[in-house]
Design goal:
single chain; alpha/beta; Lyase 2-enoyl-coa Hydratase, Chain  A, domain 2; 2 domains; 6-stranded mixed beta sheet; 4-stranded mixed beta sheet; Enoyl-CoA_hydra/iso; enoyl-CoA hydratase activity
Length: about 280
């Protein structure tokens, strides 16, 4: 397993003090943002989350990742107070701004490149880079009271990096509507736009997400790894090229031990035993 970087809000080692809470059960790794009140994605939070994801990549005990949050805000995005404080730096904050936005980009790419599915579990507001985080996950399930926005234009700063993920999750014109107006949309609108998969009552959120996660975790880990990588790669290709690439992936997939086991189990009417190879 890759080394997991652990940052704390204080010097103790209690779970309650962790910026990202970690819980692993039945192959489901739950990473919970714990930076109240806004769960801002400051440098420490992003580094901690990045470390956890990197550790999960090679951990055979992890089959799927859920990103959730504590409190009433899923994430308010970047920490504006932290960013503003660095305007006093000799370079007017340029180096720190570059570090922050580059780290955010690396974090979002880490999610899409992770060889395991990632589900966003949203209860509350997801704004700016918080909305970017939602859009970067493979699946997103939210409560009926959750809200979403990319409000950079309201403070004179267009949400350019959130736009990368949002424009790939939502339909183009709806993404531009969010980015140009900065207005908050409700859960139903977010589903219509394509930002979330399902909306559930608050009391059932964790239950529904856990059900989805359990179903996915029961599948071949090798098939999930190959399939997720291929899905994102083919999206960037012309259709003909995408079919050629996908066909080659199917051939490689047929040669895996899990495909042989899965097809044999299907034909033999038995439950497959995945080896992850």
């Amino acid at each position: 397993m890759a080394e997991i970087v652990s940052f704390r809000k204080d010097n103790n080692n209690s779970g309650e003090g962790a910026l990202v809470l970690r819980q692993l059960s039945d192959g489901i790794l739950r990473l919970t943002l714990n930076n109240p009140p806004a769960n801002a994605l400051n440098i420490s939070v992003m580094e901690t989350l990045m470390g956890e994801l990197q550790g999960a990549a090679d951990d055979k005990d992890v089959r799927i990742v859920v990103i959730a949050s504590t409190g009433n805000v899923f994430s308010a995005g970047h920490d504006l107070k932290e960013l503003t404080a660095h305007r006093a730096d000799e370079d007017d904050g340029v180096a720190f701004f570059e570090e922050t936005f580059a780290l955010a980009a690396d974090l979002m790419l880490e999610i899409s490149r992770l060889p395991k599915p990632v589900i966003a579990e949203i209860d509350g507001l997801a704004t700016a880079a918080g909305c970017q985080l939602v859009a970067s996950c493979d699946l997103a399930i939210c409560t009926d009271t959750s809200t979403f926005c990319t409000p950079g234009v309201n403070i004179g700063l267009f949400c350019s990096t959130p736009a990368v993920a949002v424009s790939r999750a939502a339909h183009r014109k709806q993404a531009m509507e969010m980015l140009l107006t900065g207005e908050t949309i409700d859960a139903s609108t977010a589903k219509d736009f394509g930002l979330v998969n399902r909306i559930v009552p608050k009391q059932y959120l964790t239950q529904v997400v856990s059900k989805y996660a359990s179903v996915i975790a029961s599948k071949s880990p090798e098939a999930l790894r190959i399939g997720k990588e291929a899905f994102y790669k083919q999206l960037e290709m012309p259709v003909a090229e995408a079919y050629d690439y996908a066909a080659s992936v199917m051939v490689d997939g047929m040669l895996t031990g899990d495909a042989q086991e899965g097809i044999g189990a299907f034909l033999g009417k038995r439950t497959p035993e995945w080896k992850g190879e």
